[in-house]
Sequence to fold (537 residues):
Amino acid sequence: MAYSDKVVDHFNNPRNMGSFKKDEEGVGTGMVGAPECGDVMKLQIKVQNDTIVDAKFKTFGCGSAIASSSLATEWLKGKTIEEAQKIKNTDIVQELNLPPVKIHCSVLAEDAIKAALTDYQQKADTQPIDTK
Amino acid sequence: MKLPIFLDNHSTTPMDPRVLETMLPYFVEKFGNAASRNHAFGWAAEEAVEQARKQIAKLIKADSKEIVFTSGATESDNLALKGALEMYKEKGTHIITATTEHRAVLDTAKSLEAKGLATVTYLPVDKFGMVNPQDVQNAITDKTILISVMLANNEIGTINPIQEIGKIAKARGVLFHCDATQGVGKIPVDVQVMGIDLMSFSAHKIYGPKGIGALYVRKRNPRVRIAAQMDGGGHERGMRSGTLPVPLIAGFGKACEICEQEMTVETARLTKMRDRLQTDIMAALEESYLNGHPTNRLPGNLNISFAYVEGESLLMGMKDIALSSGSACTSATLEPSYVLRALGVGTELAHSSIRFGLGRFNTDDEIDYTIKKVIEVVTKLREMSPLYEMAKEGVDLKSVQWAAH
Fold:
């Protein structure tokens, strides 16, 4: 099976590969998938004033899974929380030209985005309000 | 050194130029039908076929009359199982085989089961992928008519104790079929010593042409009979009708002759290269695990799981080396290799496996390049792997609650 040029590009030059410290302020972490299924994605966002200022990923999986998460970090940067919620797996499928057998990779990327956003919000909600 | 490098010699092999040379006269010049008994065109074709039959039989220590030509090993496996069952069904309908067999055997067995024609016992294998002869012994009932166990496995290269299984089969009066597709031409095969009654193999795995294979059918002690699965002109002693593809057969014969003549030297050369590939890669990369038997396996085979990286992405990173992965992300199903699973390899490590298949035309330079590339790509992908990161932080990956999907 041939990969699209975009998948190959993301695979060879992954964008924003790496990790933030999970307990760092403003960081939300989403980890989805399972090793037995052959793919695990970790996606992290760093939020300041409701805007995602940085994003990072690490992925265990096929080339399409790596490309999907790499693309997701690119798209997340600069978006507000609300805008980020609207990223759909079908957008990823379209951008990377994924074949039907690889659609699950894009679903996983959407799940990872959602999980990171949820984690960020839960952390923000439980943080004590700074009263000075 | 030319790229890409072909290191997938279990899937198929490039044809040896000497084989092609042997085949060429039989396309245009000597085009006769080997079954034409009354003119020179037919005689020339028949002579080529009989010459090939001798070369093939010699490689497996059989008689040339015991070679039945087919389109390949898949057809041979089908013919052996279905043909033997049809012929001996009055005696019994029980077949014994193993979980790591090629799908040409497994799916044939399953199809016979589904049609209610046979009952099948699928024997487990040990952690190296080997069938235990004692298990075969224990599985035999008075209804058993056929045992089918492969010589060497196509994924992990493990060589089964064929001779012992053959002895058991003979002692119990059960026919023994061996799918020897990966073993013939690579390791010594002797159908007498091994007690084999039916044996499948093909030309394209041994530097011959695609589209031709054979089923060895024992002629004496005992005389094995199988029912033809295709009706027609009654070629091949009535077991497989169809005009013989003379050029392919001539090539198959030559391929066998070369394997026989060069086996000793080639085995030593391949083993040395394979061992170097294995030692250098595994020394450089922690948590890499050998799949298959450490010593008792095909000289050109190496199957390794690299923890924390997924097989398909490994192949993608090494796109100038043709390899195969036990990860099934490439196919429609998401199940990893059933062979590795049968060995007890965890699903995650089965997803992380790569099969190297070395062959006649691989060189030391290619092995050097491959070693370098594998180390580079695995290291890069581990940097990218959240599992590797967690393992380095001391997280026990088995204790994590994964959101399976």
User: Anything to note?
Assistant: The longest strand of chain A covers residues 39-48. The two ends of chain A are 59 Å apart (CA to CA). The longest helix of chain A spans residues 103-126. The helical segments of chain A are 5-12, 63-76, 81-85, 89-96, 103-126.
